[in-house]
Fold this sequence. Notes:
Layout: H1 2-8, H2 19-37, E1 41-47, H3 66-74, E2 76-78, E3 81-82, H4 88-97, H5 132-138, E4 142-148, E5 166-170, E6 193-194, H6 205-220, E7 225-230, H7 242-247, H8 254-279, E8 286-292, H9 325-328, E9 332-335, E10 344-346, E11 350-351, H10 355-362, H11 379-382, E12 393-398, E13 401-406, E14 409-413, E15 420-423, H12 439-455, H13 466-474
Amino acid sequence: MGICLVRRAGRCQSSAVKSKTLLLSIFTVTLAPLSLLAKTNFVIILADDLGYGDCGFTGSKQINTPHIDSLASDGVVCLQGYVSSPVCAPSRAGLLSGRNQSSFGFDNNLPPRPLTQFNEAYSGLSLEVRTMADRLGELGYTNGIVGKWHLGEAEHFHPLKRGFHEFWGYLGGGHDYFRSDPDSKASYLRPIICNYKEPQPVTYLTDDKGDECVEFIRRHQDRPFFLYASFNAPHGPLQATKEDLALYSHIENEPRRTYCAMVHRLDVNVGRIVEELKKHDIYDNTMVVFLSDNGGPIKRSKKDGSVAGIRSNAPFRGGKGNLLEGGIRVPFIISMPGRLNGGTTFSQPVTSLDLTPTFVHLAGGVVADADQLDGIDLLPFLQGETEKVSARELKWRFTISGSIREGDWKLIRLPDRLPMLFNLENDPAELTDLAETHPERVSTMLRRFGDWDVSLPHPHFLEGDRFRREQIDGYDAKYDLMQPE
């Protein structure tokens, strides 16, 4: 066991060495685990399509999330936590790379089949991009992913070739919660893939993922690890257990009732992960990050333009697929009781792109300018060593839309109207367009965004064109900015 672990850290010696070197090797085997044990563990718990307002700590009046709320109480709640895209796959590409995914052609969601003008071999996370798992693996970490991949299904994109040592899950963008069927051609019924055991039959997928996360922690508790707990809850299909549905039987809207039950079950399994870390006395030395990959999906009514009330992104306008706050600002918790003061908030903008440099620095690695990471190491700010993040410029490019944030100002560029300008400090719901009263600011921000935009490579693939109309319509929808009762 010790020799294999040291080999992973790059210290294993040949069996044909001289006796003196052999003694040194044995000594190294003894000492290496001691040095690695002091390292921080990392757990990312990623929800899928979770509405901003659908956790207790973000104000939900309908959904009880005691375990997620407890994690928030133990950690730092990032009040302005962003992801790099308003849809699943590009958001995950940014999260795992630490780079704005548009910088390597990952603007769109992955299509089921690439359009004829695109090469299928490029439908995934570019092989030129190093992942968070690549970087942590070089620092002696064991890396595991449980759940959804959605960064390419071709063999060369497989997570085991992108820095992960263990994989239990599926390569596509979603899965049925109750069954898999090897004889079905439906993507959501594909069998579970696992490289370290014969996968168990699907019971309820969120619980099955929780089982695997707990087992991963048990197996690797004595060594530094990175666990990417990639849930698909509460992404569709809307499927919940009878027991969980009964908890929300008072909600008349049936899809909303099912969604609430799914969030409840996600919360239960967040609690199981945290409890397992505590059981092995490694919770204080583990950085646990909880966030969603994007805002909750919206469905606009053709009659009055209002949004159906399945998910709540209150108090923000927008949702999955657009660059309003409801599409890209997500519930965002960073917990590490041994290093961060619990029960606190951080009010400055942070992004999922910050996690890679933060993790690498905590793990004892170095981020170089040549790595071209777009995030920053958050630890000095979260610990109060540095008071203010220097004036950050955040940018998003997604299919037909683009946005730039400078300080409290945010500009959105769309193809069918003049640029929109909002002051998020005074107007977080983006109700008042200030473009006409601040033309110089619009001009400056638009030029800065445009300079960045034209420097980016062409997208490596495009999703279906029908989504473009849906995305534009989302900017004109009528949103309920209040929590459902």
